[in-house]
Amino acid sequence: MLLVEPARSTLFTDSRYTFQAQEQVTGAKIHIAKHGLLLAAAQALKKRRGRLHVAYAPSQVTVGQKAALEKLTGTGVRWVSGGDAVERLRAVKDASELATMRDAAKLISQVFRETVPKIKTGLSELQVAAEIEYGIKLKGGSGPAFETIVASGPRSAWAHARPSGKLLGKNELVVLDQGAILRGYCSDLTRTVFLGRAPEKVRRLYEAVLEAQQAAKDAAGPGVKAGEVDAAARLSLKRHRLAEYFTHSTGHGLGIEVHEMPRLARDEEIELEEGMVITIEPGIYLEGLGGIRIEDDVVVTSNGAEDLTSASREFLEL
After folding, report:
1. Which of 87, 155, 223, 244 is 20 to 30 A off residue 44, Cα-Cα?
2. Residue 70's pLDDT is what?
3. How confident is the model at residue 3 (pLDDT cuts 50, 70, 90)?
4. Which parts of the chain are beta strand (E)?
5. For residue 262, is the peptide bond before it cis, meaning its omega torsion is within 30 degrees of 0?
6. With contact defined as beta carbons under 8 Å apart, do 282 and 201 qualify?
7. pLDDT, tens digit, for every residue of 122-169?
8. 3-state SS assignment for residue 198
9. What global pTM score does this model have?
């Protein structure tokens, strides 16, 4: 737990992380707690003079932790919500963070390219997911940014399907959603392939999703509301009479966590800023046929959205 004060910061951890904290923590005093982090933080606050107002990050502190802190600190501390202040600071990346995120995007793009030739009928979704996650670690990633999604056939219409023992079959769509953690930062990439020769209908659907993704990328830029980027993708799909099959938001912020601010969804008022890294990932999901999603990581620049992921967006028939 990190306590940030006007003139100092203190990181509360325990003896398991003594040596790691000494090596990795800068800009904060390290306090090794002997009887629990909450108690150590509460005791430190009780030593401060006067009545304190302490803000907590609602997305990081659980209801149970907040209740315990209130009990331990007593009436001398008033706990108030810090809202999304921390998330807003994290939403805009500095040059060092962007350099790492470019590398993370490059890594997952390479992993996808090297996995494609291995995808074939008869393999299970779990086996393909394992190939992806093995590739991430071989290339220096500390692991997947989330549980890798490999969904084939009718299951590809499940937007967040977990890989299963289902075997990949001939003439099926396969959605592959993968991400890597590199030096603490995430990447996120989705591609959809077809096993066999795709019918013209599937080709048209793929082109419609790709067009919607490009429309959203073209809309993104400093000062643009997140909801406007989402609307651009939906309008594009509406022209193809496919908007009803787009069942999730157009994207999300990316960084230390795989889902950060901003959220690119209907009517979101937050404005994009230069230095934000976001995903743009429209998709359509048709029962019985399957799903098609195309996702890239982009950074918001003064000139609009710049792609970080580089895997081919061409429709692949394997």
Report:
1. 87
2. 93
3. very high
4. 2-4, 9-14, 29-33, 52-56, 77-81, 143-144, 149-152, 172-178, 180-182, 185-186, 189-195, 251-253, 260-264, 277-280, 283-286, 290-293, 296-301, 304-307, 316-317
5. yes
6. no
7. 999 999 999 999 999 999 999 999 999 999 999 999 999 999 999 999
8. coil
9. 0.92
By CB neighbour count within 10 A (0-12 exposed, 13-18 middle, 19+ buried), where does 280 fall? Answer: buried
Q: 153 near 121, Cβ under 8 Å? A: no
Instruction: Check if the beta carbon of residue 101 is closer than 8 Å to that of residue 185.
Output: yes
Cα 206 → chain centroid:
23
- Asked if residues 236 and 218 have their Cβ atoms less than 8 Å apart, the reply is no
Query: Which of these CATH numbers, 3.20.20.70, 3.40.50.150, 3.40.50.740, 3.40.350.10, describes 2-83?
Result: 3.40.350.10
Average pLDDT, the chain: 96
Q: Which residues pair with 252 in a beta bridge?
A: 263
Both structure tokens of 235: 């309008």
What is the per-residue pLDDT across 223-244, written as a single tens digit (0 to 9) for each?
Answer: 999 999 999 999 999 999 999 9
Rounded to whole angstroms, the Cα distance separating 299 from 220 reads 9
- Domain positions in the chain are 2-83, 91-317
Same fold, 2-83 and 91-317: no
